[in-house]
Amino acid sequence: MAVAEDQADISAGEEQFNSLIAQDSRIEPRDWMPEAYRKSLTRQISQHAHSEIIGMQPEANWISRAPSLKRKAILMAKVQDEAGHGLYLYSAAETLGTSRDKMTEDLIAGKARYSSIFNYPALTWADMGAIGWLVDGAAIANQVPLCRASYGPYGRAMVRICKEESFHQRQGFEILLELANGTQAQRDMAQDAVNRWYAPSLMMFGPPDDDSPNSQQSMAWNIKRFSNDELRSRFVGMMVEQVRVLGLTLPDKDIRFNDETEKWEHGPLDWNEFKEVLAGRGPCNAQRMERRREAHEEGAWVREAAVAYADKQAKHSQQKAA
Amino acid sequence: MSESNASATRITPGNALRPEDIASSSAKPTAEVAEYALRLGDDSLILAQRLGWWISRAPELEEDVALGNIALDLMGHARSFLTYAGHAWGKTEDDLAYLRREPEFRSAHLFEQPNGDFARTIARQLVVSHYQFELYSRLVESTDATLAAIAAKAVKEVDYHRDHASQWVRRLAQGTEESHNRMISGLTLTWPYVEELFTDDPLIDSLGDAAVLPSTLRKPFDALITALFAEAELQVPAVPGAIGGGRHGCHSEHLGYILAEMQVLAREHPGATW
Is B274 inside any structural domain? Predict the structure, then answer.
């Protein structure tokens, strides 16, 4: 009896789920959802959260050396925003049934992924500009369509994150603009940073469409709205316009607008390097993981103290009530 | 507030006094007021530089955000005080932050003390936030209108810093045995540098009602700390006060490293704007 009822619940739930997806409406935490949908979203949202947290490191590397107090304040605010984004995203992922502690453990244990781009080093101050302009720019191109993702908590978190990200991108652009109009040394620093971050930022959209195993299902579930190559092409188009304003160049002589397809095209990307970095052989993979692990382990006694104190307070107020 | 100050990177919300507003104002401090503003600005600047280290290294994400916020508030206060002080000498906040040498800094020794573990950082925060709260809540009455305006904004923010530090002192003191021991050790390492904050000197005497006499802050500071410690079952560390000298440019061994890191890029590119 019970089994039959459960099955009836599932098929009613599935029907409801399919109809919500068909109407391009939203799935909420208490709605029935296929296990694969839950698993795929948990993977995507937690990876996104981890990327925000690991992504704090290359920029935090320049807080102490920021060359003016205004820039220092802005950079602190930006890296702090990223911690905030990590928090909203972990909360969104928690609504799918995985705790933040578990996701953090997976990250520390090297079981979870984060955006590969953060395994490149931030070598000069101009990298603060290039990261803001190119890396945050690519993130926005990726994330704006996610504001309409079928899973409600994710879509809503993305709305807020995108607003802050567009501010981040503008500040990155502003850093580069200032450098590009500065001394020769500053101009060289800006061009060098753009040269180093251009290709990795294009690869942030993920592998080419014919080599992207998860994309199709994600699109069928209204999580992903545009293919990797489509988003990459749009991003290239935006950067081509903006780099002119900066008076810098993109390190890609093959960029062109294809009149037939009406899409921007770029030169070949080194997908072998992408796979190498993904597999842990980027310049900073070990360093980023070590730093996160260290912060987590060295903070353990603080978190334990907070829990112990809260327990004592709760007991104390129970005793008072009794 | 003039629209010419509007920028994509404006970070202070609302109508609060911003460093840019002070930069464009014609108020010029006397040499003595400027020297006083320099002390207050340097205290906050050096501590913000220290606290910035925690962003991406805190025990939990909420603390990355909280310590980052506190550092940002302090950076805002520092920028306002330094901008105002700079008016006396035709210098900008960045001239003062990036181009002065160690003996020209006027911060007290407490602000340059190492972060240590989280408990030591919290012990330093506890002292600084309570000291600054008492100071700014009186400085709002300063006869110098700009100092009063900066204090009016700052006092609201350091009130939150006080709350943050006090809550953590309670948690750590009464959490686990380890956190209790670490809290005591953090307080013990911090306490030698408390006395310097409350020491008067001829500059302050010469400022009259424009400044706040540091010695007058000691009693209210002690009262609040004693009450908190009683609640958290802590003792005021029985350690002697260290000889200071920061107000006259005589610093501990730590400041040189802080400045070396903070100033390296700006000094590498003389005359550049960023």
Answer: no
Q: Provide, as residue numbers in chain A, all residues whose Cβ is less than 8 Å from the Cβ of B56.
A: 56-57, 60, 79, 83, 291, 295
Task: For residue B101, tell me if it sits in a domain.
Answer: yes
Q: Do B59 and A303 touch (CB under 8 A)?
A: yes
Q: Tell me, what DSSP letter sits at residue A27?
A: B
Tokens at B232, concatenated: 């958290």
How many contacts, defined by CB atoms under 8 Å, are there between A and B? 156
Q: How far apart are CA B274 and CA B272, in angstroms?
A: 7
- Taking an 8 Å cut-off on Cβ atoms, the answer to whether B273 and A182 are in contact is yes
Q: What is the number of domains present in chain B?
A: 1
This prediction has a pTM of 0.94
Min distance A216 CA to chain B CA atoms (Å): 34
CA–CA min distance A281, chain B (Å): 22
Q: Map tokens 């099955």 to a residue.
A: A7
**Residue B154 lies in domain:** 14-268
Query: Scanning every residue of chain A, which has its alpha carbon at the shortest distance from the alpha carbon of B76?
Result: A73
Which CATH number does the domain housing residue B239 bear?
1.20.1260.10
Chain B residues in contact with A298 (beta carbon < 8 A)? 59, 117
- Residue B83: closest C-alpha in chain A: A69
Residue whose token pair is 């001239």: B95
Cα B6 to Cα A167, A246, A289, B3, B21, distances in angstroms: 14, 21, 39, 5, 11
Task: Determine, for residues B79 and A170 on separate chains, whether the beta-carbon distance falls below 8 Å.
Answer: no
Angle subtended by helix axes A300-321 and A285-298, to nearest 10: 30
Q: Residue A309: which of B59, B62, B175 has the nearest Cβ? A: B175
d(CA B166, CA A252): 55
* φ, ψ dihedrals at A122, nearest 5°: -95, 95
Average pLDDT for consecutive 10-residue bins of chain A (322 residues)?
64 92 95 95 96 98 98 97 96 97 95 95 98 96 93 95 92 97 98 98 94 86 91 96 97 96 96 93 96 97 98 91 80
Q: Establish if B213 belongs to a structural domain.
A: yes
C-alpha closest to that of B42 among B236, B251, B228, B240: B251
Rounded to 10 degrees, what is the CA torsion of B25, B28, B32, B34? 40
From B117, which residue of chain A is nearest by alpha-carbon distance?
Answer: A298
**Chain B nearest C-alpha distance from A190 (Å):** 12
In a domain, B93, yes or no: yes
Q: How many separate helices (H) and strands (E) can be counted in chain B?
A: 11, 0
Q: How far apart are the first and last CA of chain B?
A: 23
Question: Three-class SS of residue A258?
Answer: strand
> How far apart are the CA of B229 and the nearest CA of chain A, in angstroms?
16
- How far is Cα B75 from Cα B52, in angstroms, rounded to an integer? 10
